[in-house]
Specification:
The complex is a heterooctamer, with 6 copies of chain A (224 residues) and 2 copies of chain B (241 residues). Chain A has 8 helices and no strands. With 224 residues, chain A is mostly helical. Chain A folds into 2 domains: 133 residues, Translin, domain 1 (Methane Monooxygenase Hydroxylase, Chain G, domain 1); 91 residues, Translin, domain 2 (Methane Monooxygenase Hydroxylase, Chain G, domain 1). Chain B has a single domain, classed as Methane Monooxygenase Hydroxylase, Chain G, domain 1. Chain B contains 9 helices and no strands. Classes of the chains: A mainly alpha (224), B mainly alpha (241). Chains in contact: A-B, A-C, A-G, B-D, B-E, B-G, C-D, C-H, D-F, E-F, E-G, F-H, G-H. At the C-H interface, helix 1, helix 3, helix 6 and helix 7 of C face helix 1, helix 4, helix 7 and helix 8 of H. Bound molecules: manganese (II) ion (2 copies). Chains A, C, D, E, F, H: Pfam families: Translin.
Chain lengths: 224, 241, 224, 224, 224, 224, 241, 224
């Protein structure tokens, strides 16, 4: 092989392998943050609704601090190579989406759109090609959100909050209707979307139990 | 006497033509699969909306949209007519079969939404024929059966996702019976049709999912001594604005 | 090949193959004991709570008798070779951990720590390098414990014991919180830990059913 | 090669290949019968309990007619060669065991023992070495029976028969306890036996659902 | 399913399965003929060149009798279904091509073209869509021919026929050049074609040995 | 499960598992003997032809001692169960056939027929149903013999014995012609038989090398 | 505030566009693979003819025909330019890579026939660039290496099939050395490039085949005390008309 | 979970994961050295025999420098845990054995015994339990050596060294005879040992080619 080529190739391979190492470090740091958020948010299942806002306050700073991580990614990923490396952090990113949208739902009952999640994670438009929040990862995060809310519907009732399941039901149905508009391939997203149906069914059952036992007051519309 | 070189030249032309045709059919099959899959997604969307309708109007219009979508697939097959003429169909059957099955799945799903019944062989073959009823390709029993077998998976999805809505419970019960019959009918064919028993296993698991859903419906109505419609009304009034 | 070398090599291969045979026999004996315990403990699902203590008494002697087995291992495993052979008995050891911790939970509702399991199985500190209870196997045993308790929560209700699921729920959530603090790698342990979520969800649903029907009052929330 | 030897060898190869052909025909016939039985029995999931006896009457003659098949086998299999060919009909035989035992359970709620299955299939003692019902195949049939009953527990409830799951639960637990006492080696049978746990869990959940809602009372616990 | 459809489908499946049975019988008969030819032709390796013509005479009638087989195929294969079933007899057909072309080469040193092989096997033009000799099978047969000739080159020398290898060399090179004109896929044909190189190499080595030892007279050109 | 039935089943399972253990021990002993024979016979490749008889004398007693093994099998295998367990010792038995027939070929150049191999291994007629030498295993042994002889043809020439390859060639061709007359199914045996062609080709090439260099004269062709 | 429905509608458009692009690239890749494979066959044909030529004329013209063929592939890449622009290249790399490797195999084979050397990275990249040297896509080291690794298999075929001809023996010896060097050079990259070690194993087995051929050449010349060319002449005169 | 227990468990998990990282670094360094040696030794196939000694001189220092690596392992592996981690470096170690024994063979034609390889790699006796050269890895290295020598036999002839194959043949047969005396179980080692037969056959054919053409005289047979 051409001596020149040999050197260039070796340099290029070394660069990639260094880069992979650096990304791995960033992912470890990212993971730690998302795991902290998940740990804190896990308490919603045993927290009375009036204490929830206080709990959320403990999560917010961790979410904000993810901006440091995404900035880190934006610095090390070479221009246009986002898709080359993204599998390494997809899981963490999806968990961050999950945490951000759950926070939002618990705060004001709304769905945080992709662009807001993106800016909440400190992702900047000029990073295009280096670090973005892909639609696919946002959707994965939403599915995790629905999974969690079906669990919350059950536990809220146990804690005596009979209104929550109804609120959740309306919220989740809208998300489900959104997913129904997509043409998915036979991939993970499709499989997880299929499983959403069971979450919705579970939530419906809670709503059914609650309504028939007349435990819930007629609902005030919260969405428009 | 013909030289070895020139006969092999003729072989080359024949083999190249064969490989090119094979490529063309593979590509067309990918397109057909994609169009059919998209149609199935569309039908799920429309079916979800039409479920609450008392009359069959919207249901029929959903089916109409499905048929319209599939007309594009049919015209693709019309275009492949020559590549599949005579003995060519069986020569390229392996390349054509996956797309065909996906198309039959989509078509039978559309048919189900309109008629709540299984599409018959003749109707599928007719959909793949020109105005003079001359087929673009001969429909085989195995493609027909394998395509229908995939339908049960979509019906399971339809049953489960409709279940939370009014009318969805009745639909789930209907589909449960329908899929049970499909499974029983197909059972006799498994030893004759390759890969059908694998698909029957999928049908079995779909059926179990529907049965679990039907079970849950009965169970949750069982604690109350009121007719299901009245229970539905109470729930609806709780949720409704 | 040098005759001397050949002899040494053959002696070494023969020693290993004899040893493997001996270990296999020990594992068979160990397996028999753990299977007996599992068989007995399986009855908890159809035993009314007041008869449980009597049932547990039948398990205790079998657990104690495991000391004979571990002593057997400590005698045949050559110094330093614990890790070479441990895959052969890992399954049995994990089942023993499961039995010991289930016994403890049913006795007084507490979690038996690793060191106590270890001493209950007769494992002695000076056996280090020959036979120990590795952290990993202890954790596997705990996951099996949670799997079993989610089943028990269901069956307790069938037997009319509506308080048990609530007790189980609190116990299991504590174990889950403990796991959440560990740095698990992406291995079997991690995968089994991820599956714990389903057990917890099931238990929560039982608690929901029971409290919705006012058959028992869930404990006061302990987290905020 | 010696002409004489060659002839003997060829005769032996030809005999085997003819025999295989004959066995294949018998297996096809056997398969047809078992498939008919399975098809009929499959209707139990949608048949109200009072019509079940009438359904069973349609299965009984098919089961009886299996005697023709087993007699066929006993005639073509050379003395001593049962074990040589048995893999060819194992599947059909196991399905026949499944049908016979399901029939019996639905008739009077009891477990048909091996010897009765054997005589129901027309197998005669003097056929030893030519055609028998091996223990292994009987056990495989029982596992299929449990698989089917877990599905029946669900569908019985849908048909409004709330007592059936409780009956099934007790029956299946007894079979499971029986299996627990066997020394199964690590083979297919063991793996299928391990999977029984899921069936039992499913049945227990149905019993739970039914008894929680007081739709039926579980029997008195029989173990202590 | 529509009762009408059920019947039609069953009839169609039964027809196919009968047909498969019939084809299998034809293939067995075809196989027997090709095996006889191969057995006879195998003797060329130990037959002096002057006795070869007599040997070939024993093969010719067997080859002619293949017309009965192909006629049989043409009667049972439904119009246009040639490609559906052809895998069942491909091997036999290729062996027949091998036998026919070897016979021709040994008779007059020429390559029998596809159309001649086809008519020698009794295949008729009006059978198109039911039974033909595909190019692919003809080519497979030729590769077997070359395999055999490389063996013959070796054995001819052993038998003292030093001219044969040179004749074979020229003949085989022409075939090889023909193959080189094809664009093959990565399939069996490609793999077998790759292996031809080694046959040619072997033949060349024999030619080399023979020429350098001056065992062969200068060659009279036989091809043009 | 019926206690009686349970006991019978368990007894049957235990009997089989003990039997398997005993057979395994016999196979280990058999294996040791066949490995010794193979080890000794491996020396033929570097032994001058005049010393071969002395070498064979060392193999004979080992072969005779196999009678102890086969007697052992005949005692532990229950009547009628030969075919159930035969896969466990097939490999050893085939190796024994290989050793016996190689011994015979090297002694007098003849092929030992099946019945003689059988009696050489001490197998007795009245063991039918418990222990026999199946046709299939005899044929496998012969194929191994041909594999070995193609290697011997090469090494004999290296040792200066130019006549051996010619002797081997004739012997092997006769075996091959024998195989060609058998109706082999498409199984392992068929595949191994097909591979014989390569051995024959190799042997023919050795004969070619030897006769080209006039180191030995090939025998007169015997076929016409 | 934007409704959930309309945001998901936007998602649908984005996902559909992505899947359509992916399909387009898969199809184009199949075409590229086929064209490249055909080129390789063509080159083998031409190489076989040109072997006996004393001068390099026909060899160069063989290469010229190879380059001409591959220009079609290059124009396909030019057409994919937009679908692979910016960050898209890496997004669809998995779909594009197999075709790219096959193209590099064919290009490097052509280059070898002309120069008897390994094509350098820059030359491959330039072949995939427009007149202004703007690349249609960024060439990656891994595609470059994996494509070259396949070249050794073709060289093995070239060496073996030429061996019976005059000049083929010299060529086989040359290729033996060349492939040996390739194998040694690539060895250092195996831990960095996925799948390269699998291809190295294929290279090893190709190398062994070439070595066996080289061995046979030496061996059969060894019995005669004459220079190889003279031996060739004697053989040629025996066969020749 | 007990806080104390949790801390111990986490410390243990963290220690292991750090250790794994350190070992991975050592393995990378080890790998680099073995790859360098293999790269250099690969040149023997194209190096004339008189230049070989000079080539070997370039390998020796690399081999010596492996002592640094093994010392590194001995420092980080905790006492008793050799067998826990050994799979991580087995491949590198086997390659080192291969390089050392090939070096020795090329130097003086002898087989380097296990203990010498061990000391050549700087492994010290007092490291037992932390770092040793297991018998299994030594044997794997020897098999790779034989694989390489069969290739060398061919290439030596190409380079005009006709004596080398004969030397290799005798050397390799001695190794093979050694292996034949070992009781290898049915594992990877056994399978690789079985494959040695092909290498030996290949070498025998080279020796045959060379001696047939009287290019070199095979040594006097040493076995009788
Ligand atoms: Mn589908
Ligand atoms: Mn290639």
């Amino acid at each position: 092989m051409d001596a020149n080529d040999l050197e260039t190739i070796n340099a290029s391979l070394d660069f990639d392998s260094d880069l992979r190492e650096k990304i791995r470090d960033q992912v470890t740091a990212f993971d730690k943050k998302t795991r902290t958020m998940v740990g804190l948010l896990n308490k919603i299942h045993s927290t009375p609704s009036d204490v929830i806002p206080k709990l959320l306050e403990t999560v917010r700073p961790v979410l904000s601090s993810c901006a440091v991580i995404t900035a880190g990614f934006s610095e090390i990923i070479p221009q246009d190579q986002f898709w080359r490396w993204k599998d390494m952090w997809s899981n963490s990113l999806r968990t961050a989406v999950f945490a951000a949208t759950l926070l939002q739902y618990l705060t004001d009952g709304t769905l945080m759109p992709l662009s807001t999640v993106s800016s909440n994670l400190g992702i900047q438009e000029e990073w295009a090609g280096r670090f973005v929040l892909p639609v696919e990862d946002y959707l994965h995060g939403l599915i995790s959100l629905v999974n969690e809310l079906s669990r919350l519907a059950v536990n809220a009732v146990t804690l005596g909050n009979f209104q929550e399941p109804i609120k959740i039901s309306l919220f989740v149905k809208e998300i489900f209707a959104g997913f129904a508009q997509l043409n998915l391939k036979n991939d993970t997203l499709r499989r997880r979307y299929d499983s959403l149906k069971y979450d919705i069914k579970k939530i419906e059952e809670v709503v059914y139990d609650v309504s028939l036992r007349k435990l819930a007051a007629p609902n005030q519309p919260t969405h428009a | 006497m013909i030289s070895v070189s020139s006969t092999f030249n003729a072989f080359r032309e024949e083999l190249d033509e064969h490989h090119d045709r094979r490529e063309r059919l593979i590509k067309a099959s990918r397109d057909i699969t994609n169009l059919s899959k998209k149609t199935i997604f569309l039908l799920h969307r429309l079916a979800l909306d039409s479920l609450t309708d008392a009359d069959d109007g919207r249901r029929t219009s959903a089916a109409a949209k499905g048929y319209a979508n599939l007309r594009e697939v049919q015209s693709l097959y019309a275009g492949l007519r020559n590549d599949l003429a005579g003995d060519r169909f069986w020569r390229y059957h392996q390349q054509v079969s996956p797309g065909l099955q996906e198309y039959i799945e989509a078509l039978s799903f559309t048919h189900f939404l309109e008629h709540r019944s299984l599409i018959c062989f003749e109707t599928v073959q007719r959909s793949l024929s020109d105005a003079d009823h001359v087929p673009y390709l001969p429909l085989t029993t195995s493609d027909y059966l394998l395509g229908l077998s995939d339908l049960t998976g979509e019906l399971m999805r339809l049953a489960i996702s409709g279940i939370a809505q009014r009318g969805g419970r009745k639909q789930a019960m209907e589909i449960c019976t329908f899929v049970r019959n499909c499974k029983a009918d197909f059972e006799g064919f498994t030893s004759h049709v390759r890969d059908l028993s694998k698909k029957q296993a999928v049908t079995s698991s779909s059926l179990e999912k529907i049965e679990d859903a039907a079970y849950a419906i009965v169970l949750r109505g069982s604690e109350y001594d009121l007719p299901p419609e009245m229970l539905d009304d109470i729930v609806a009034s709780t949720i409704a604005q």
